[in-house]
Amino acid sequence: MEDQESAHEYFGAIAEEYSSLVERAMPSYQRMLSAVLEYNPTESQSVVDLGCGTGNLTVLLANSFPDARLTALDGSAKMLDLTETRLAPKSITKVVAQFEKTSFPKNSFDLVTSCLALHHIKAPERFFKRVSNWLRPGGTLIFGDQFRSAKPEHDRLNWKRLVQYWNEPGHLSEQEQGSLERHREKHDHYIDLDTLFQYLRSVGFCEIDCVWRDGMLGVVSAKVA
Q: Is residue 1 domain-resident?
């Protein structure tokens, strides 16, 4: 894996290996996906998965909401093609775009969701303001991601645990670890939950909650009035 100019180019270049990589790199990844689904609203007619990658969450959403209009967005066309193949014969709307730069009409979705993507955003407050406009009244934002801790010593402990996981047999090679660390330094913009909650409140979200947490990983849910 080589460093790329943007996050979507980086992961697009390893699209065929992405699903394997994320399982080997992220402890509790499957539990995080399960939490995103578990805390979703029971009925959603229009759903968008931001930064869908190879469709690990998108496939689960399609199963949970078989009658919903499902939009999958990613900056990598190759990732989207893999997602579409996995979902066949279900029809989805594919959008090739960087989610931090894209736009949708007001009140487009009941549910905006994502997994391990939104930490690439450099200006989260502006981004979440746009998301609040995409959602219909009463709509839900729920996403799983990596977050900073309130205390630096907790961040150091979580990073130590992550590297230990990487070094377990069958997980990441030295080359993969080095590539992910370089990607992290270049593209990842982690924030703590208090800061995130302030951003969400400031743009009109309510009922904000961290519904699941394990080390660096967490799932956050919020609604628009």
A: no
Pairwise CA distance, residues 223 & 106, whole Å? 15
Domain count across the chain: 1
Task: Check if the beta carbon of residue 74 is closer than 8 Å to that of residue 52.
Answer: yes
Residue partners of 144: CB distance under 8 A and separation at least 6? 32, 33, 35, 36, 57, 114, 115, 116, 212, 217, 218, 219
Q: Does a structural domain hold residue 119?
A: yes
pLDDT digits (tens, 9 = 90+) for 60-105: 999 999 999 999 999 999 999 999 999 999 899 999 998 888 999 9
Q: pLDDT, tens digit, for every residue of 126-185?
A: 999 999 999 999 999 999 999 999 999 999 999 999 999 999 999 999 999 998 888 888
Cα separation of the two ends of the chain: 43
76 lies in some domain: yes
- CATH classification of the domain holding 97: 3.40.50.150
Nearest to 169 by CA among 16, 23, 1, 24: 24
Give CA–CA dist 100/80, Å, rounded: 17
Q: From 132, 141, 116, select the one nearest 51 (Cα to Cα).
A: 116
Q: pTM value?
A: 0.92
Q: Is residue 205 part of a domain?
A: yes
